[in-house]
Design goal:
This protein is mainly alpha-helical. The protein has one domain. The protein is 71% helix and 2% strand. Helix 3 runs antiparallel to helix 5. The longest helix is centred in the C-terminal third of the chain and has 27 residues. It is globular, with a radius of gyration of 21 Å. 39% of the residues are buried.
Length: 351
């Protein structure tokens, strides 16, 4: 986590103050890439809370990420104003589809505060309702994973439809301003970068505190032996529902930070593959470690960025091989493997 803090502090200096011809200059592309990966790291951290510490594997967290991104994207689309291709108060895709007015769910889309509320409320409410019925029905294990993936896939198909008012398969893009400030300005992008870094650090500290509380110990007991927890008189429904909803909200906030930095949001972000990738980041880094999923998100996405440029046709093979290798040789992930090696080294020194 010290590395994330260092990057958050150093990046503005290396990007804005160091000359471009210097070897120490951090390019705009690198800033955008690191900012995007930090958003992914928040999702991986949220996955660790629900999977690593509670034993519930979700393949639907990409949906919550996308919902937060769409909520922010709606505001950014309204900020374009008449600077769009059709010079209309409506977003360009609505003009193209011959819409005459904004649909009802765009009513508060011109309010930054309202959309921030929806960034939290929409993923949180969906997770609460879905989780309540799923956990009350004692759905668990692979069945829960399949249902979350099915939910994500259904939502993706819904958002692909033009009549839903979310831009169809193209989604939202061509953003101009945020809070009236040009979004492409270096200072604006760097401000978003720093906010993302601070958010990641804040969520890490929150998660670290949470897992060490009585609430966190109950979650770990649910992971290890839920029936025994029930016999001890705990109603596990509300414990699982609370951490499930919190993890969904974290993903929604990550999505809201992702969209203005990347410049686009479309239904592809809620594809089943996106949810699986979040689980892969967590597994590669190390479950139930908190720092592991962050390491996994940086490692996998950093490698993906390099492989898609150097060997684009082999990237998916690499991802599959990586996941298999971690499963076979590093079942505790990168961080777990390092801890185990350090533990062995310490025992040998004492011996």
């Amino acid at each position: 986590m010290a590395a994330v803090i260092a990057i958050t502090i150093a990046a503005p200096v290396l990007n804005l103050l160091v000359p471009q011809q210097s070897a120490f200059h951090l390019s705009d592309y690198a800033v955008s890439l690191i900012g995007k990966i930090m958003c992914y790291a928040i999702c991986a951290l949220a996955m660790d809370l629900i999977w690593g510490y509670t034993g519930i594997l979700s393949l639907g967290h990409g949906l919550f990420f996308a919902l937060g991104g769409y909520a922010m994207g709606m505001y950014l689309m309204r900020q374009i104003g008449r600077d769009g291709n059709y010079q209309s108060d409506l977003p360009d895709f609505m003009v193209f589809l011959d819409w005459k007015a904004l649909p009802w769910h765009w009513t508060f889309s011109d309010s930054f505060i309202a959309q921030l509320f929806f960034v939290v409320a929409v993923p949180g409410l969906l997770a609460f309702v879905f989780g309540y019925f799923a956990f009350r029905s004692r759905i668990k294990g692979v069945y829960f994973s399949i249902i979350t993936q099915a939910l994500t896939y259904a939502a993706m198909l819904l958002f692909f439809r033009n009549e839903t008012g979310f831009g169809g398969n193209n989604g939202f893009t061509d953003f101009k301003r945020l809070l009236g400030i040009t979004i492409t300005l270096p200072t604006t992008r760097m401000a978003l970068f720093v906010i993302t870094g601070l958010t990641l650090v804040g969520f890490y500290l929150l998660a670290r505190w949470l897992v060490n509380t009585r609430f966190g110990r109950v979650l770990q007991a649910v992971r290890d032996a839920e029936n025994r927890v029930l016999f001890c008189g705990y109603d596990t429904l509300w414990y699982k529902l609370a951490i499930w909803t919190l993890s969904a909200v974290m993903c929604g906030i990550a999505g809201a930070l992702y969209v203005p930095q990347v410049g686009i949001i479309n239904p592809g972000e809620m594809s089943p593959a996106a949810g699986i990738e979040i689980a892969i980041w967590t597994a590669v880094g190390g479950r139930a470690t908190l720092i592991g999923p962050i390491v996994g998100a940086f490692f996998v996405n950093g490698a993906k960025s390099w492989f898609t440029q150097a060997f684009p046709e082999f990237w998916l093979y690499f991802l599959g091989a990586l996941f298999i290798a971690v499963t076979l040789f590093l079942p505790d992930g990168i961080v777990g493997g390092v801890k185990r090696l350090l533990g062995k080294a310490g025992k040998e020194e004492r011996a």
